[in-house]
Amino acid sequence: MCTRVFWNTNHTAQVVGRTLDWEVSDEPRLWHLPVGVARDGAVDGAARWTSRHRSLAMTFWDLATSEGVNDVGLAAHLLYLAASDHGPRDDRPGVSITLWVQYVLDNFATVAEAIAGLDRVQVVPVAVRGQMLGTHLALEDASGDSAIVEHLDGRMVVHHGREFTVMANDPAYDEQLASLARYRPFGGTEALPGDILSPERFARATYFLEHLPEPADEREAVAGVLGVTRNVSVPFGAPYDDFSVYPTWWASVTDVTNRAYYFQSTLAPNVVWVELDSAALTATTGAFALDPTDPQLSGDVSDAFASATATF
């Protein structure tokens, strides 16, 4: 599951938040990855590239990048979308769904550049721990530009523009936008919903994002978005209509203006953050990682990374 909100209308910082909702923990690990890493798309007929940008990348199960931000302030976030349909394999170089976010962070500097380049490769679904997962992608950059990228009925569908600031899960994005008209704040007759289903989270995130007061500084901008993510978080034990349970394991906020990444586990009261331009990271070579859920960590953990071998 999951929800993403992008606050690009304040005058302080372009800030994006997301929740990570799933049946079990995704065992998150945060990586600092350097320029010059040679990669391939990890599928037959794979695309090959060498990373042009440093990045902070959050991974799940050390198999895939779920989100991140690079050294020029382009951020990307992968969320679940059951309606996703990539169509049959074609003759374009392939990129596994597990590397879609990393491909963006490695190669592009802006949302517009990423959108122009994404159609040159084919994103290929693969099984993750034996399960095929449909996904869609959110992009943001330091200018406030935004995009939502979905694959529906075998074709890539892009919503590109500063106005596309909220994303949840199913249904597809056009239907999510249309569903807002049901609710009184958007011209409908129904009260703002309080359920945990995707359309209800989408509506609440849209409403409360629009009502955030102008922040006095970057700290308030980050806190404002973190507050919206808490409003759309799913408590542990809360059942969906079919009694499945997908709680929020963590929430993050990325300040793309200042290239800082904030993380809070929902099992801990403390927030940790990393500044991509910190001396502790810009002086490194190779890949470095940390466990952001480590209970011993709090505050700025830019100097807490340890050398590691990336497996994704």
Topology:
Layout: E1 4-7, E2 15-21, E3 29-33, E4 38-40, E5 48-50, E6 55-60, E7 64-70, E8 75-80, E9 94-96, H1 100-107, H2 111-118, E10 122-124, E11 127-128, E12 131-132, E13 135-140, E14 146-152, E15 155-160, E16 166-167, H3 173-179, H4 198-210, H5 218-231, E17 248-255, E18 260-265, E19 272-275, H6 279-282, E20 288-290, E21 299-300, E22 306-307
Parallel strand pairs: 9-10, 19-21
Antiparallel strand pairs: 1-2, 1-16, 2-17, 3-6, 3-20, 4-5, 6-7, 7-8, 8-13, 11-12, 13-14, 14-15, 17-18, 18-19, 20-22
Shape: globular
Rg calculated over all Cα atoms: 18 Å
Q: Runs with pLDDT <50, length 5+?
A: none
> How far apart lie the N and C ends?
22 Å
Q: Could you explain the architecture of this structure?
A:
It is a single chain. The strands form 5 sheets. Strands 15-14-13-8-7-6-3-20-22 form a 9-stranded antiparallel sheet, covered by helices on one side. It has a 7-stranded mixed sheet with strand order 16-1-2-17-18-19-21, with helices on one face. The protein has a two-stranded antiparallel sheet with strand order 4-5. Helix 4 runs antiparallel to helix 5. With 312 residues, it is of the alpha+beta class. It contains 6 helices and 22 strands.
Name the features.
single chain; 312 residues; alpha+beta; nine-stranded antiparallel beta sheet; seven-stranded mixed beta sheet; 17% helix; globular
Offer a quick outline of the entry.
This protein is α+β, with helices and mostly antiparallel strands and 312 residues long. The protein has helices at 100-107, 111-118, 173-179, 198-210, 218-231, 279-282, and strands at 4-7, 15-21, 29-33, 38-40, 48-50, 55-60, 64-70, 75-80, 94-96, 122-124, 127-128, 131-132, 135-140, 146-152, 155-160, 166-167, 248-255, 260-265, 272-275, 288-290, 299-300, 306-307. The strands form five sheets. Strands 15-14-13-8-7-6-3-20-22 form a nine-stranded antiparallel β-sheet, with helices on one face. Strands 16-1-2-17-18-19-21 form a seven-stranded mixed β-sheet, covered by helices on one side.
